[in-house]
User: Fold this.
Amino acid sequence: MCGIVGLYLKNPELRTRLGSLFAPMLTEMTERGPDSAGLAVYRDQAPTGRVRVTVRAPGVDWHATGERASSELGTPVTVTPMATHAVLEAAVDGEVLRDWAQAGDPPLRVTSSGTTLEIYKEIGLPAAVLERFGVPQMSGTHMIGHTRMATESAVTTEGAHPFNTGDDLCLVHNGSLSNHHRLRDWLREHQGLKFQTENDSEVAAGYLTWRLMQGATIAEALEAGLRDLDGFYTFAVGTRDGFSVLRDPIACKPAVMAETDDWVAMASEFRALARLPSVDDAVVWEPRPGQVYSWGRA
Amino acid sequence: MSAREEIDLDAVPVRRLNRLLQGRDSARQAGSFDVLNPRGRHALAAGLVDPIDVVIHGHAGYYCAGMNQQARVTVAGNAGTGVAENMMSGEVRVHGDASQSAGAAGWGGLLAIGGDASARCGISMKGIEIVVGGSVGHMTGFMAQAGCLVVCGDAGAAFGDSIYEAELYVLGEVETLGADCVEKDMDDRHVARIGELLGRAGFAADASAFRRYGSARQLYHFRIDNAAAY
Assistant:
């Protein structure tokens, strides 16, 4: 099954309330996905010239990690721990910081990279995951989240969504893909992409990353996905400036959208949106199958 | 006339609401109920058996008024997946839009949707009458067996796919017809039928301007000539 939600705040005055508006949306989707949960948050951009990477490594000494990173990379690396995750920032190339994190002993698993995006995910009930990462206290412009009921691969944190798909891009997926094995092999062998799991949604994320590397816009990448991704899906894709939504042409998986002057939101079901401010005055509609919807500052 | 009873779903769980509306704690045969703060909750007013009147003030979630018998249920908002699914009798009215599979497998009664209905409206309908004020999504009327569907707007792709003997009427454009669904001639009986259903639904449209669709009856039985296709 799985549940997905997205919230973009148009009104800057609401931004301090992003997490407190978002957390009940994700919790409402618990019945659709009780085994793990995750979220992507766009709060603020790292200072010019600096990159931001979120990593996960339960039990690691984050202070020591920061010192080791600074010394090995030869530049100050700030480490901001958040439960099992931490946000690393440094004035280096993103790939350098990412490779350093993954090459360590023990390796730090990179959940996001870019300049703005942070991704947090764990197994467990959504309410517990939200509490653990202090989501209700978060501020920012937009968030995307996922509650997972695993069907195609194991219940692990690695299999939880969102998946990072290139700098500051992330994907959540409700559905299942049927051509992910072949597509993963092709992207790995012919395009050099790396995959961390056997998860089908990670392949969709990798596919979008590859299209973007080829110069496509996010809307173009999603439209190409209509041809190349076989299966059921409702996708929500987070970008630095907003988010996009796409349902497969047969529309097997649900989605509902709502918009007011203050915010735009999407969810698997309306009940996740039912407590947003002034929702009774919102325009509410079901996204049409096979059509890309995008919002944001861009 | 007896007073209307209010049930606030912020204070009362859905299970208790349905128990009350289903008359399981009393021998009640009639009554009027206002349901407040539905907030997209599922299975509201499902399984009703008495000729009661229920108004849901706001948006309903999945399977609202499912399996309805005799009751008149109004959703003053949108309805989620499967509104009035498997309805036997009575009336279900949705003021806004309905999500997919509205009226699925319904045997009887009237489902009137003021806005649009999305994919698979009337899938496998078995006698229900459905009137949609707006447009319907793809695969509407899939395997529709009996009953009548009137669409005042447009119909999405694969309309009436694998249809049996349900009657389908559309005022606007049909994107594509599904397998074994064809356009058929209209005569006075059909215009009268549409007019009667529009009247009961409370929607204004020119009954004579609709077009009629139904089964070409080529898929009813296995044909040995098609064996290679399986």
In short: Chain A has two domains: 3-44+120-296, 49-115. The helical segments of chain A are 18-28, 62-73, 94-103, 126-132, 180-191, 200-213, 218-228.
